[in-house]
């Protein structure tokens, strides 16, 4: 257990300023803390108060949703189980016939559209507030990342076939995010302004 505790400390050292709980999405005390100091200090001069963050960033504040030790355990367990399953399942998968590989080629209009949208997304995310680029890992952006890989990175036929199979369920996740957006951090007044 000492090894897991040490690994948890290493994980936590990646960002000592994260809280062990998610701060409230709406100001409750008038001095809600969103981040600790660089070395986990919690004194008045070191912390970052939620009210000091740029508008819209409060909802994106990172925190330790799970304890670092649990991250280590889950990472080891899930990755190990996943690798074992992949090694067991991969040989049993039917191979996509190489003579039909032309059927999976991405048409030029799709390549152009993907290139334009993906480049625009990257520019937008990289020019936002610090850390906004991490939104490229969300389902809707992950779909475009997969399309960009399919369009612009040469892959073996079987890998292209698997990528197409992965895009189908990921597209559903993006649609769910659009159908049920989380607007809990919006104030009523700003929500009205958005709809007007």
Q: Can you give a write-up of this model?
A:
With 196 residues, the chain is mainly α. It has a domain at 99-196. 49% of the residues lie in helices and 3% in strands. The chain has helices spanning 2-12, 68-89, 108-126, 139-152, 157-179, 188-195; strands spanning 33-35, 48-49. The longest helix has 23 residues, at 157-179. Residues 189-196 have low confidence and may be disordered.
Number of strands: 2
Order of helices and strands: HEEHHHHH
Classify the secondary structure makeup into a structural class: mainly alpha
Radius of gyration: 22 Å
Give the overall pLDDT as a whole number.
Answer: 77
Strand content: under 5%
Poorly predicted spans? 189-196
What kind of assembly state do the chains in view correspond to? single chain
How far apart are the termini?
Answer: 56 Å
Spatial shape: globular
Number of helices: 6
Order of strands, widest sheet: 1-2
Biggest beta-sheet profile:
2 strands, antiparallel
Helix content range: 40-55%
Set down the secondary structure blueprint:
Blueprint: H1 2-12, E1 33-35, E2 48-49, H2 68-89, H3 108-126, H4 139-152, H5 157-179, H6 188-195
Antiparallel strand pairs: 1-2
Helix pairs in contact: 1-2, 3-4, 4-5
Keywords for this entry:
196 residues; mainly alpha; 2 strands; globular
Structure summary:
By secondary structure, this protein is mainly alpha-helical. It is built from six helices and two strands. 49% of the residues lie in helices and 3% in strands.
């Amino acid at each position: 257990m000492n090894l897991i505790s040490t690994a948890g400390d290493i994980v936590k050292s990646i960002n000592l300023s994260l809280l062990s709980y998610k701060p409230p999405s709406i100001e409750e005390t008038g001095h809600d803390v969103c981040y600790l100091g660089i070395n986990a200090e919690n004194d008045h001069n070191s912390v970052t108060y939620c009210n000091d963050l740029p508008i819209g960033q409060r909802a994106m504040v990172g925190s330790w949703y799970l304890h670092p030790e649990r991250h280590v355990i889950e990472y080891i367990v899930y990755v190990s189980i996943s690798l074992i399953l992949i090694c067991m399942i991969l040989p049993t998968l039917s191979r996509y016939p190489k003579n039909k590989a032309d059927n999976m080629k991405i048409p030029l209009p799709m390549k152009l559209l993907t290139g334009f949208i993906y480049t625009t997304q990257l520019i937008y995310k990289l020019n936002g507030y610090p850390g906004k680029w991490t939104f490229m890992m969300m389902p809707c952006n992950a779909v475009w990342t997969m399309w960009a890989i399919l369009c612009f990175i040469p892959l073996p036929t079987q890998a292209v076939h698997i990528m197409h199979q992965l895009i189908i369920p990921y597209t559903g996740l993006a649609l769910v995010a659009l159908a049920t957006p989380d607007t809990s951090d919006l104030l009523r007044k700003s929500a009205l302004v958005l709809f007007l």
